Amino acid sequence: MQDYGYLSVFYERMPDLLGKLSEHIFLSGISVLLGCLVAIPLGVLLIKTHIRWMKSLTFNITNIFQTIPSIALLAMIATVLGFGTETAVMALFLYSLMPILKNTYAGFDSIDPQIIQSAEGMGYSPMQRLVQIEIPLALPYIMSGIRLTTVYIVSWAVLAGLIGGGGLGELILAALSLNDKPLIIASSVMAMILALVADFILGKLEKAFTKSSNTEAQKI
């Protein structure tokens, strides 16, 4: 057990804390990014095709991942991919799908049909409507889903330490094995601060997109 205090640990172990923090940011960021790359286009596809069974099947599958306990999902994926960062990213990616998909679908579904009809009357092609009107109007909903997902993923990424996936979780586990209470607190605080910073930044972006969306709707 180390002899530093609860405040001095931030100075004594700052290189370790910053190194694991950068790993934590990578784990969380790449997982949410992959979730966006899959869930947003999938949400657009579901709202455009209007195939009820496809929507039901997709939402049921993505919802299953939300019901599996985090440790259980990590264990199942680890049996296939082994321990390490790839397993952690895969698990976090699967957890990110549902909220982003749900909010993307809700965002497009909330668009006033009269706005779409007005755009058609103005000669917009389907692709122009999607890119210039529908996506901007749905962005506040999409950003809300990304914001919520990011905060959750930052928290869940701590569990990546259980399978050697990196991040602040590894530092917390190492500190627990040594009964190093200051390092446990410091690592946990860093994770909480990261979640709060991510929530703050994405909250600002969400408000900006909401304002832009309202302006876009008034133009049509």
From TrEMBL:
Keyword presence, Transmembrane: yes
Subcellular location: Cell membrane
Start and end residues of each ABC transmembrane type-1 domain: 21-202
InterPro entries, sorted: ABC_transp_perm/SBD, MetI-like, MetI-like_sf
Keyword list, A-Z: Amino-acid transport, Membrane, Transmembrane, Transmembrane helix, Transport
PROSITE patterns from the UniProt entry: ABC_TM1
GO cellular component: plasma membrane
Record has Transferase as a keyword: no
GO BP terms in the entry: amino acid transport; glycine betaine transport; transmembrane transport
Spans through the membrane: 25-47, 68-95, 153-176, 183-202
Gene3D superfamilies (alphabetical): MetI-like
Membrane topology: Multi-pass membrane protein
A Pfam match: BPD_transp_1
PANTHER family: CHOLINE TRANSPORT SYSTEM PERMEASE PROTEIN OPUBB, GLYCINE BETAINE/L-PROLINE TRANSPORT SYSTEM PERMEASE PROTEIN PROW
Recorded family membership: Belongs to the binding-protein-dependent transport system permease family. CysTW subfamily.
Name this polypeptide is given: Osmoprotectant transport system permease protein
Organism phylogeny: Bacteria, Bacillati, Bacillota, Bacilli, Bacillales
